[in-house]
Design goal:
Layout: H1 6-12, H2 15-18, H3 20-24, H4 26-29, E1 47-61, E2 68-88, E3 91-110, E4 113-122, E5 126-137, H5 141-150, E6 153-164, E7 184-195, E8 198-209, E9 212-215, E10 219-223, E11 226-236, E12 242-252, E13 255-257, E14 260-261, E15 266-280, E16 283-294, E17 299-312
Antiparallel strand pairs: 1-2, 1-17, 2-3, 3-4, 3-5, 5-6, 6-7, 7-8, 8-11, 9-10, 10-13, 11-12, 12-15, 13-14, 15-16, 16-17
């Protein structure tokens, strides 16, 4: 395609609002995320089913030339999740699936005129396969407690690949969508060091995006890779409670429309805390908070509060 369609050039001033779902869904729909205990070892054959709810609110700042001001958003996310642990070449592997459903409102001033948009529906599901290839042996449930007692200090290395599939709600005549109409794939490497009741986690990821060839106004949207690092410290208490604190940093991800760069490199800082507790022998809850800040003159700041319940079988 050639240069941007004239109709869409003016609309591109509003395009920044169209990236809001990416910005505010990160901690609950797992874009650039902040997720503790993703490398935690469990017995092979373990299945985990969970439901979660997250509330995100925030505001965005844009280049003054766009004349977009006072932009705020509220987003509710409900999600279904499933995990399966299994053995692979003597080590532990894990499969995850997450399906989010969202309801959100975006409002602000465009050229001084009040504008608001609401979207409800399914967002893009995410699937993840991880393999702890060193230091995480595949252990049967009956042997797991003994293994933990005999190995209070351990270090594990792992790799994973995460795939976001474009099954979410998407309308090519709308700038704001819950789905992104493109695949996102994220190779990851991770380190988990456990010292008795303390765990230290480090994850590095690179997010690659396919082209959205049905972007608003008949245009084509491309995005450069986004690089991300995150780390967590987790403390497990004698009664089964655990507490984590973590931080993440992401950079890159410049977008272009029909080959024209938008000069919108991301530099984002996320930090937060989470708390978990067992309810019964096979059930647990998780409560957490994530703060997201842009480190550039344009971008979004948000708060996310979330709660989740899971059952292990």
């Amino acid at each position: 395609m050639g240069r941007m369609h004239p109709k869409s050039r003016r609309a591109l001033a509003k395009f920044a609002i169209g990236i809001l779902p990416n910005i505010c869904a990160s901690s609950v729909a797992r874009g650039q995320d902040l997720e503790p205990r993703r490398w935690t070892l469990l017995p092979v054959g373990t299945n985990v089913f969970g439901v979660g709810y997250g509330y995100t609110s925030g505001d965005l700042a844009f280049d003054p030339v766009l004349r977009i001001e006072d932009v705020e958003f509220d987003l509710h996310t409900a999600s279904l999740a499933f995990s399966r642990y299994f053995g692979l070449f003597g080590e532990t592997a894990r499969f995850d699936a997450l399906v989010p459903f969202q309801s959100g409102q975006w409002k602000g001033l465009v050229d001084g005129e009040a504008t608001s948009v609401r979207r409800d529906g399914m967002a893009d599901p995410i699937f993840r396969f991880s393999y702890s290839f060193l230091g995480a042996p595949a252990i049967e449930p009956q042997d797991f407690a003994e293994y933990r007692q005999e190995n209070p200090v351990s270090t594990a290395l792992g790799a994973a690949v995460e795939l976001k599939v474009p099954w979410g709600e998407y309308m090519d005549d709308k700038l704001i969508n819950l789905g992104q109409n493109r695949f996102a794939i994220a190779p990851q490497v991770g380190l988990l060091h456990t010292h008795e009741d303390w765990s230290f986690e480090l994850t590095a990821a690179t997010f690659f995006y396919t082209q959205n060839d049905d972007f608003f106004g008949g245009n084509e949207l491309d995005q450069d890779p986004l690089f991300a690092l995150q780390t967590h410290v987790v403390k497990v208490f004698d009664n089964g409670l655990w507490l984590s604190c973590g931080a993440a940093y992401g950079w890159g991800g410049e977008s272009s429309v029909n080959g024209e760069n938008l000069d919108d490199d991301r530099r984002n800082l996320l930090y937060g805390a989470a708390f978990g507790s067992a309810l019964f022998d096979n059930q647990s809850i998780r409560i957490g908070y994530v703060r997201a800040n842009t480190l550039t003159d344009i971008g979004g700041d948000s708060h996310t509060f979330y709660v989740g319940w899971s059952i292990r079988f």
